[in-house]
Model the fold of this input.
Amino acid sequence: MLRCVTLAALLASTALPGAAQIVVQRKLAPNSLRAELVVTQPPELLLNGKAARLAPGARIHGENNLLVLSGSIAGQKLAVNYTRELRGEVLEVWILNAAERAKLWPKTAEEAAKWRFDPLSQTWTK
Done:
């Protein structure tokens, strides 16, 4: 009996490292747009060189999808996807990893209106 429990524990512990390496594709909002973001003086920022502002309660997701404070990325040029709220302030930001940066994504609302989005693969096509 003790051997069975030991064997089960050994098998379970060897399966965990493999499970921890599973890469989960995060879901970016289909209405988000691509831009270069620079946080100047929080909540002020530049999106593609144009002045913008973070909305109250805005969330910035890092490359690993953990939340990032705007002050911790001040002065850095980052490739991001972002959404705006009704008043035009930036509501949600995703700092893109290398795989996400490689995907085609619209930079303007006009592009998004002309292109087609596939939610399963999280890709846009012209």
Notes: The helical segments are 2-20, 98-102, 109-114. The mean pLDDT is 87. The chain is about 25% helix and 35% strand. The beta strands are 33-39, 44-47, 50-61, 78-84, 90-95, 116-118, 123-125.
